[in-house]
Design a protein that fits this description.
This protein has a single domain, classed as YbaK/aminoacyl-tRNA synthetase-associated domain (YbaK protein), CATH 3.90.960.10. The strands form two sheets. The chain has a five-stranded mixed beta sheet. A three-stranded antiparallel beta sheet has the order 1-7-6. It is built from five helices and eight strands, in the order αβαββαβαβββαβ. It is globular and about 40 Å long. It is α/β, with parallel strands linked by helices. Strand 2 and strand 3 form a beta hairpin.
């Protein structure tokens, strides 16, 4: 199965692999996904979408076993404050659903920030854009394809 995110990576000749796994509605969090694919939770990154005080949509990619520090996220993005969007806004804004939101291939290229700990690993995982599939990719390649910046977010 090829998702939009995988097609974008292939178009840009970015090395990656896709890992499929069984999921259920109660286990779509990144730590559960890490367990299912046999990865360390700190290498499975979740994609969070937020809005700043200027009503700008921002994307934050952080290790699955951490919470986004809103103060650090605001600082990284040059915002006064940040709040998470409502789940019902996710699909209309990004084209993705909760548990299947990839930082790659959203409807628009939103300002994106990847937690700096990603740089500690040769490869990390992020959603392929559907529940039940992850992409394994070099952090710098993810940064390039999403035009992201590395920042202290946790």
């Amino acid at each position: 199965m090829k998702t939009n995110a995988i097609r974008i990576l292939e178009t840009h000749s970015i090395e990656h692999s896709a890992i499929e796994y069984q999921f259920n509605e109660e286990e779509i969090d990144a730590v559960s996904v890490a367990n299912k694919i046999g990865a360390e939770p700190e290498t499975v990154f979740k994609t969070l979408v937020a809005r700043n005080d200027g009503n700008e949509i921002l994307v934050f990619v952080i290790p699955g076993n951490f919470e986004l520090n809103l103060k650090k996220a605001a600082k990284a993005s040059g915002s006064k404050n940040i709040e998470m969007i409502k789940v019902k806004e996710l699909q209309p804004l990004t084209g993705y659903i909760r548990g299947g939101c990839s930082p790659i291939g959203m409807k628009k290229l939103f300002p994106t920030f990847i937690d700096e700990t990603a740089q500690l690993y040769d490869k990390i995982y992020c959603s392929a854009g559907v529940r039940g599939m992850q992409i394994n990719i070099a952090p710098n390649d993810l940064c390039v394809v999403t035009r992201a910046k590395f920042a202290d977010l946790i």
